[in-house]
Design goal:
disordered N terminus
Length: 119
Amino acid sequence: MVQHRLGAPGVADDRLDPAALEAEVLVLRHENTVLRRQLASPVRDEPADRFWFSALSSLIPRQRRARVFPVTPGAPLTWHRQLIARKGDYSARRTRVGRPRSSAALKKLVLRLADENPR
């Protein structure tokens, strides 16, 4: 209570929604995991890390995000744009170019009709 009145940074606000407090704790735990994994190298978030930060960002009030999250507010939007640029063109669905193949039954029918109607 004393820390809250003094406005100590990083101290949880008791008036916040319990889901927001839980999300804040999860963000901080995940950030610690990421930092432990990368002690010798610069911090680079993997796609799974980006997923967690993005998913939990909606649970934490906007005013507290800057104190909790290790990324800038624009980072999730940048990640989304990069994901769409990389995966959003549906190139995996495009296996063949041009007209789809006709079925064997349709080919037989066309040939039979051509034989029956000589011109």
